[in-house]
Amino acid sequence: MADTKTAPAAGSRTRTPLFLILAICLAPVILALLAYYVPGLGLRPSGSTNNGNLVNPQRSLPAASALDLKTRDGQPFDLRSLAGKWILVSAGPGACPETCVTKLFILRNSQASQGKEVNRMKRVWLVTDDAPVPDQIEKAYGDTIILRADPARLAAYLTPNTPIQDASNTLAQFMWIIDPLGNLMMQYPRNIDPISVRSDLQKLLRNSHIG
Q1: How far apart are CA 19 and CA 107, in angstroms?
Q2: 53-207 has which fold?
Q3: Low-confidence residues of the chain: pLDDT under 70
Q4: What is the predicted pLDDT for the residue at 24?
Q5: pTM (2 decimals)?
Q6: What is the pLDDT of residue 46?
Q7: Is the peptide bond before 57 cis (omega within 30 degrees of 0)?
Q8: What is the pLDDT of residues 188-209, one digit of tens each?
């Protein structure tokens, strides 16, 4: 009888170390998620190590009808269909002047430099007018998803408070990163050092377990 009464207590003592080990293993992951998605808790370090500008507050991808994106053959496209991937975004006119080419180049090389993590990302170029895309751009960046976008609708999401008449020009000044959960979370000026974008992307992929 004595052995029967003490068995539950012994079993409880046996499980306690397992629960402690599990809690210790999960704590960093939980804290990292809270720091990233709930900045108001004050868990982020005061000194930022990212080179781009964090979008604060983060903005979720709007419905497809709000952006009204079209493929090159005129079919509607929903950016939310890329959920689960890190989306590297550029925007600009179809003629794609040198500044536009530079942005496409930075994003392509930033992705290519990530080695085995390369498939965790997609690149998107949002063309903000009806101008044809030059053949050389098509050939050089054929693996980039090219979509037509209304600049006013696009600016409402990517660069809020931009006057409608300035939408196209403002969009052409930046690049963005959208996380796998569909949150717009990082913005870069077009003249940023390419190594800075590559470095930020490497950190995001290394520290994130999503996407």
Answers
A1: 44
A2: Glutaredoxin (3.40.30)
A3: 1-15, 22-23, 26-49
A4: 76
A5: 0.76
A6: 44
A7: yes
A8: 999 999 999 999 999 999 998 8
Q: Which residue, 121, 49, 54, is CA-closest to 89?
A: 121
**Domain extents in the chain:** 2-41, 53-207
87: its two tokens: 């989306």
Structure-token pair, residue 197: 């974008």
Q: Which of 89, 107, 105, 114 is nearest to 202 (CA)?
A: 114
C-alpha to C-alpha distance for 104 and 138, rounded to whole angstroms:
11
CB-count exposure of residue 174 (10 Å: 0-12, 13-18, 19+): buried
User: Could you give the CA distance from residue 169 to residue 173 in angstroms, rounded to a whole number?
Assistant: 7
Read off φ and ψ for residue 121, nearest 5 degrees: -125, 155
- Which burial class, exposed, middle or buried, applies to 167 when counting CB atoms under 10 A from its CB (0-12, 13-18, 19+)? buried
- Tokens (6 digits) for 42: 């004050």
Question: Helices marked H in 53-189 — which ranges?
Answer: 64-67, 98-112, 135-140, 151-158, 167-171
